[in-house]
Amino acid sequence: MRTSLPARRPWTAICAFSLVEVVLAIAVLSVSLLVVIGLMGEGLSNNHDSSSRLQAADIASLLISTRRAAPTNSNLANFALLALGGTNAAGQGDMVYATTNFTKVQTDGTAVSSASSSQVVYNLRTIVTPSGAQKNIANVDLVLWWPATLAANNSTLPVNNPSGYYELMTQIVLP
After folding, report:
1. Would you say the pTM of this structure is higher than 0.70?
2. Counting beta carbons within 10 angstroms of the beta carbon of residue 99, is it exposed (0 to 12), middle (13 to 18) or buried (19 or more)?
3. Residue 121 in this model has a pLDDT that exceeds 60
4. Which DSSP state fits 79?
5. CA distance 23 to 30
6. pLDDT tens column, 83-110
7. Distances (CA, A) of 82 to 59, 90, 147, 158
8. Cis bond before residue 158 (omega within 30° of 0)
């Protein structure tokens, strides 16, 4: 006995995807994944730059706060920010003299002569000038930049296209 299949109803459709639809869906998915992977690399780069900038801000804050506490103390061993005041030839003390200094600095605020691969080091340029007619107020301009490369003539900033820099300008009153 032969059984026949039920007759096909014209309104019933077969539920399936064509090969073209599958290929287009895979293409859209792969392009989307490539964009997401590309953005992840940019995000990681921005995260590294942000952490370097935050560390530079911490170093600048350390240098300024230590100098504010002891602006004329020159006994701080290897401290990156030089004493701000001094005595002139006439014996007058606590006067600010214009200076520019270039050095390399570690994360703890100490100056280093050369950078080794195990140290996190920034370049530091310090410009100290008297504040107009008031010789007991120092204008301090700090610029930290990384990676640590110092120009041969110590006069230009930035050097060798630094990946970032941080600048802080403030005034410090001498006691």
Report:
1. no
2. middle
3. yes
4. B
5. 11
6. 776 554 444 555 666 778 888 888 888 8
7. 15, 22, 22, 21
8. yes
